[in-house]
Amino acid sequence: MKNSAANSLSSVQVIDRLTFLLDALAKEGGRASLKVLAAITGLAPSTAFRILATAQNNGMLVRDEAGLYRFGERFTEWSRLTYGKIDLRTIAKPVMIWLRDQVNETVNLSVQQRDEVVYVERVLSARMMRVEQIIGSRAPLHTTAVGKLMMAEQGKAWVQTYAARTGLPALTEHTLRDYASLWENIEKSQKDGVARDDEEAEIGVGCLAVLVRTPLPYHCGLSISAPLNRRSDDWISLLQDAARRIEKRIQGESVVLSLENFTVDV
To answer: Where would I find the IclR-ED domain in this sequence (predicted)?
Structure first.
């Protein structure tokens, strides 16, 4: 009986500790290292690692190439059953409209699916000559501004593997086709906090992009697409502000991404 009671207490303690770790991860914006999570919870790193590894095995967490933990697919599935859930596009669209009105160009919301960017929402410019990304359309990560930032999140080793796996296919004559040039561009984009597409996906089109941090288990980004001769670095601060506004609107909400019009496998 004593052993049974001790085992029961130990199981409860593990659940409590997992809850502490998940709360800490949420407070860090849904992405954090073992060191940070252990420090916030006061758990020994070895203890935190064992609990997090078990959560990984059960689909509750994923650990990316940089060694950072994020919420996994299982939480997304659970959240879809929760009353009061809000679609990411519903949260983002008012901010996207605001940004479109500031720059008078098309604004896109996208997510990563394996080796591609998937466009999940857009707000079109009223201009006669404008860029239009079809909702549900896709592009290789390395050909888009937002895709470069998504690649940066996964680290140099992942990018090397991606380059070898895909062969870096060209969509235009300006697409970055060799790993060294691509990584140099990605590093600069990550350092600047904004990425550019210089006719790499479509001739005559230039984009600016930033990441949007969400609790969803895949990378999300916000971008402005315009004819290259109209693209302006004056938009960067507005784009970054819009991303932060979306992140602020997400706080405290049960966020999902409904997939009725397209498929994103996570």
So the answer is: 74-252
What is the rounded CA–CA span in Å between residue 231 and residue 123? 17
Copy the structure tokens of residue 48.
């935190």
Look at the block and give the residue holding tokens 């960067």: 236
User: Which sign does the torsion angle of CA 3, 8, 13, 15 carry?
Assistant: positive
Show the domains of the chain with their CATH numbers. Answer: 2-71 (1.10.10.10), 86-256 (3.30.450.40)
Question: 20 — phi, psi (to 5°)?
Answer: -60, -45
Radius of gyration of the chain (CA): 20
DSSP H or E stretch at residue 85: none
DSSP codes joined into one string, 183-221 = HHHHHHHHHHT-EEEESSSSTTEEEEEEEE--SSSS-EE
3-class DSSP string for 53-121: HHHHHCCCEEECCCCCEEECHHHHHHHCCCCCCEEHHHHHHHHHHHHHHHHCCEEEEEEEECCEEEEEE
Tens of pLDDT, residue by residue over 94-120, are: 999 999 999 999 999 999 988 999 998
Q: Specify the pTM.
A: 0.65
**How far apart are the C-alpha atoms of 213 and 30, rounded to whole Å?**
8
Supply the mean pLDDT for the chain.
86
- Which position has the token pair 């062969």? 167
Kind of pairing, strands 69-71 and 138-140?
unpaired
Please name the residue that has the structure tokens 């409860």: 12
pLDDT band at 260 (very low <50, low <70, confident <90, very high): very low
CB atoms under 10 Å from CB of 199, counted, come to 16
Element (H, E) at 255: strand 255-256
